[in-house]
Amino acid sequence: MRHLTAGLLLGLASLAAAQQGDTGTKPQADPPARVREAVERWVASDQVDQALLQRTLVAVLEDPAVGLPVLGSELAAAKPADTPRAKGLAELATKVSLAFVEREDRSEMSYAGQYLPLQPLQPFVGELFLRLLLETPDWFADNHRVRLVMPLRDLLPLPPRADAMEGIVALVEDTEIEPQDLRLALACAMHQWGHPRYVQPFLEERRQASTEGDAEDRIDALRDLSTILVRLRDPAAALREHLAMQAMADAGGHRLWPADWYQAACLHALTGDVGRGFAALERLAALQLDRSTDPSLRVARRVLEKDPELDLLRRDPRWVPWLERMFPAPAEPPAKSQGDGKG
């Protein structure tokens, strides 16, 4: 699906450019009508033209708040499921859902509710993701299954059906074959669904590691522990472990990563402490503006501007001056004087 989504992102950019350059007077349909027309062109076709499918994906995901409800209403109305129309809508909804997940995965942000825009495609999308997770087809990469867990948690706040729960438990408990990142993600989901015992071994292992080895090993263990608690959606507990990591790093003169201070700012914001949130942002700024910091470790401006976990800090009057200091505008080139020309 990476190839498909790369094309989708290019298509979205091309569509936006075309719309900005359209100076004609032809009246434009309202956004839901445009999406509905695009979907109708796809389902009314022979459903083999990949270029047409691509254009339909672009139309639906140009504005998910508009396109996904339109697609969801068409999908819900398509009965019975074995008609060409229903099959075409199911294929489109599958491609759209996976493209949305990949786009969010590339956003460098992760937060509760991130995948709720897919809710209009329920129950189709929840069943789709469970099937890809538990009965993974050849066309879906095994190492992409972990990307489905956060969407499933947002879309299924309550436990899924019993057979799906049994399959998920089997994955969590399969320490010989299944990768750790998938097992941990699913253990956090099981905690949300009322079964906290599956995540306890992960927590206990990291807690033990935070008391052993050298300072850097213990800092890494505390970072991991805080991250697990974030994934359990317990910001207060995550903050306690994060503060312990900060104290250990400061005491030993160990330099944390920009992402650590970004995470600290998020946790302070989520727990309502604006002052300490900005103190964490100042530590982040010191690293971001330090020329010795690896550029690949810096936090992108778009992440700071869009992450909803920082909403409380963005409402503070200190935010704009801080952001402008973090990302100063490029200096204007000096104007040439009248005597600068050669002659």
How would you state the average pLDDT, rounded? 91
Strand residue percentage: under 5%
Rg on CA atoms, Å: 24 Å
- Spans where pLDDT lies below 50 across 5 or more residues: 1-9, 11-27
Q: Please describe the biggest sheet, giving its number of strands, its sense, and whether it closes into a barrel.
A: none
Number of strands: 0
Topology, element by element:
Elements: H1 2-20, H2 31-43, H3 50-61, H4 64-77, H5 84-105, H6 124-134, H7 149-155, H8 162-173, H9 180-192, H10 200-209, H11 215-231, H12 235-252, H13 258-270, H14 274-288, H15 301-306, H16 311-314, H17 319-326
Helix pairs in contact: 1-3, 1-5, 2-3, 2-4, 3-5, 4-5, 6-7, 7-9, 8-9, 10-11, 11-12, 12-13, 13-14, 14-17
Describe this protein's structure:
Among the domains are: 199-253; 255-328. The protein is mainly alpha-helical. It has helices at residues 2-20, 31-43, 50-61, 64-77, 84-105, 124-134, 149-155, 162-173, 180-192, 200-209, 215-231, 235-252, 258-270, 274-288, 301-306, 311-314, 319-326.
Could you name the key traits of this structure?
343 residues; mainly alpha; 17 helices; 62% helix; 0% strand; globular
